[in-house]
Amino acid sequence: MASETSAGLKVLHGLLQQLAEAEAGLADGPRRIAVADRQVAAGEQQSEQQKQAIRDAKRSADEANLRLRSKEAEILKLEGQLNTASTNKEYDIIKGQIVNAKKDRGDIEEAGLLGLEAVDEAQRRLKDLEVELQKRRQQAQAAKSDYEAMKPRLQAGIEALLLQISEAEKVIPGSELAMWKRLRGAHGAAAVSCLEDDFCSACSTRVTAQDMVRIRTGVFVVCRGCGRALYEG
Ligand SMILES: [Zn+2]
């Protein structure tokens, strides 16, 4: 039969574990929100980069269009010169220049088409990114409203546990209270350790026969290995 002190420490241990869980639950909301917010920021950045990619692709397409118009003007001019050629040699030279200019025009047209396709592709990709971003914004909003909805309940649970813990801490002798506060501050629920046979379950130090007698007679005893408050479960 465990002593009253052991029984009290066991209750205290259980309450401290519940408190740790409740506090972890409360901390989980802001953590989820932070993760969701980072996802939104990353999505916004991707969207911005994609908008820049679209502007770049459009500029390339516009440049190809300008080159095409100037090449066409060049061809027209050469065709005009062809009519005014005064020698056969001059005629042949201009004819050759026209052939070359028309070949260039074909290349520019091709580049222009590829450029337009690149613009389309970049716009499709932006649309996908915007859909994904919208989804991420909704997730972030849901994380925030879930947390806001749960917070009062979690906080109330923590308040109730803290009251129960103050009550349960009456098992600790007044002379040990300052030491206990430090221990609890450092280890939380792990400030208390249940004995397994006559070993401390936290650090596996064997409890001396003398300490076992003290524990069984209800003396508040801390582990000589790790300093935790010991109890018989
Ligand atoms: Zn120990």
Write the layout of secondary structure elements.
Layout: H1 4-83, H2 88-168, H3 177-187, E1 192-196, E2 199-200, H4 209-216, E3 229-231
Parallel strand pairs: 1-3
Antiparallel strand pairs: 1-2
Helix pairs in contact: 1-2
What CATH calls the topology of the largest domain is: Helix Hairpins
Please state the second-level CATH architecture of the largest domain.
Orthogonal Bundle
Number of domains: 2
- Biggest sheet, spatial arrangement of strands: 2-1-3
Instruction: Please report which band the strand proportion falls in: under 5%, 5-15%, 15-25%, 25-35%, 35-45% or over 45%.
Output: under 5%
Rg, nearest Å: 40 Å
Q: Helical residue percent?
A: over 70%
Tell me the total number of β-strands: 3
The number of helical segments is 4
Secondary-structure content class: mainly alpha
